[in-house]
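User: These chains co-purify. Model them together.
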Amino acid sequence: MPSILMPALSPTMEEGKLAKWLKNVGDMVKSGDVIAEIETDKATMEVEAVDEGPLSAILVPEGTENVKVNTPIAVIGEADAAPAPKAEAPRAERVEGPPEPAQEKKVAAPAVVATQSAPSPEVPEGTEMVSMTVREAIRSAMSEEMRRDPDVFLMGEEVGQYQGAYKISQGMLDEFGPKRVIDTPITEHGFTGLAVGAAFAGLKPIVEFMTFNFAMQAIDQIINSAAKTLYMSGGQMGCPIVFRGANGAAARVAAQHSQDYAAWYGAIPGLKVVMPYTAADAKGLMKAAIRDPNPVVFLENEILYGKSFEVPKLDDWIVPIGKARVARVGRHVTIVSFGIGMTYATAAADKLAAEGIEAELIDLRTIRPLDIPTVIESVKKTNRCVVVEEGYPQFSVTSELAAQIMTHAFDYLDAPVARVAGKDVPMPYAANLEKLALPNADEVVAAAKAVLYV
Amino acid sequence: MAVKSAYITRKLGKGEKGEKPNLTNSGFSTEEELHAYREMLLIRRFEEKAGQLYGMGFIGGFCHLYIGQEAVVVGMQMAQKEGDQVITSYRDHGHMLACGMDPKGVMAELTGRRGGLSKGKGGSMHMFSREKQFFGGHGIVGAQVPLGAGLAFANKYRGNDHVSVAYFGDGAANQGQVYETFNMASIWKLPCIFIIENNRYAMGTSASRSTANPEQLGARGAAFGIPFEQVDGMDVRAVKEAGERAVEHCRAGEGPYILEMMTYRYRGHSMSDPAKYRSKEEVQKMREEHDPIEQVKARILNGKLANEDELKKIDADIRTVVTEAAEFAQNDPEPDASELYTDIYVNA
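Assistant: Joint model of the two components:
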């Protein structure tokens, strides 16, 4: 008899909370009946029955958190019939877990790899750290800035009544009202231009793109209007605005919804481009971006939204734009990445550590202005460098890094800079092909070994 | 007069378009007639001088002259009040002068000199004045329309009673973002006046070849519930009168308003346009029968609001202003090389 499995309710959902059962054991269930409510990190969704028959068993009680997708949650039909094993749907298991401190059992060499650099900027001693998802970090940064400055407002598709397509703005409409949390029609070109005009008039808009793929419709306003007008006006017309939203590949959404724009916007003078990895950086950089008098493109990642990190509990946690973070100190090879690329870089550094190779890990955090001095300083120490990103390889952030390292540290390099990037193909849909199209930790490990000639 | 009706479908009647204008009934006070005459003449003489300097090689790149369309911006300016914002396309010199920007600064920007309003970094198509609430000067056709609605959004957000006036041409009226903007302006009741300067040609393509229902571009606002009027844009009085209705509608919180100004540019699209797409006779007929400046001049003289000598004095004063602007623009130094890397970012 059919068992009901925990459904995946979004492309990136891996687990959820079984919030409520709406049927009891023994109830007759018809196809289409709502039998349960499931809470994901994005929304509360109803689960409808597909099969018919008596609800013979509830396997996961209501209120259970972190129920993995595809876990059997109930059985419809005769209880004595064992659920038939189902072929597991292919899932792209490309998401590395959140960075774990190097585990001792893995570490063959002295535990230098666990050495974390000082957080940047410095956190006062004794500051309480709280665990926070990237999603919560971005939300709290926006809310804090909106409390602080009445000229700041949020606009975009579904940011208000729907509570955010990715729940970033959840609860903000309640706190700030429809004047400052503004649902737009689906007109990226138009509402981006409108927000830029409001910024010319001195307001400080935060424009949410549901994803940056849709911002392609608006890229003229971002580049020609927001980025260039200060220069074209001889310094008169500032544009204090933040363009933010999910960027890069999510999971199984194929070519039109999976593209990394770091290099696109990173090429434009007049824009600042930020792409954080951790929740602490997401929060501190978002606050810095909102206060910045220039247009800032703030590139988020759907897969990172639900990841938790330690965030300093401070009234005003600001991370300066344009400063890279040495995420891990090492002496054998420098690995530079940013955004979700840091998941591959971090996992690779752990694997290398297990083999006694100490990688120094640099998280760029900002794409423009690029913190080249921090990278060069590290390369001068390690003499070897691997650069990692999820975007396309040609004309990319990593190609710029490679060129800059060649220019500024040529005499220090013991091997050519190695690049690991997404493959030079539109993102495929099939799970196996998608996995092949994206970089992974093993590619980073291989590149590190290549520059180390081991 | 508060406008409460959902639509004002006012289309030019027979006597208002194509036939010779009425030159007897002024509708303007003497002061207004003379003001309109002076303002329009300044734009005319300035643009003629710009054309000359372009021919001499002092002005580079693109240069789009406003000659023939002067009544539109001058009439609208007379309907606005200080603090109302203006934004337009690349055919923008007339708007700057009408907003009160210094002719020297405008001309020096055309010649790419350090005394230009954008320090020589913007050129003909990109000039701004925060002081005069002039927000450009935009080179991408139609892009200024959502920007203008954004200025209106800021007025509404701040709860002031200013309106924003966003100008665009019949060519831009086919850009998708214009309709995205109409939609948002209407649902959010933004105090924005959309001025379609219909000069009949999108570069070299006549409205009849490029535009569905070319007789009434403003009527497209009806789909969004935005009131619209078609106005004789060669008659500064008609422009001001319609402008006042639009301003009142916006200030009253009734949302946006569309004015389609039927106008005509005498010169080519830009300096490099030989204008082969229309006949010389067509241009000549507009100049002879509908010239906005000649209309005012005739009314002034017919109504004895001023005599020939007084008008000549105005002409001479304007020539002096324009000559001084041109001299400044030719002699002012180019920007210092160090300016290459300034004004890219505001220091945080």
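Chain A touches chain B at residues 153, 179, 184-185, 187, 189-203, 220-221, 224-225, 229-238, 240, 269-270, 272, 291-294, 321 (CB under 8 Å).
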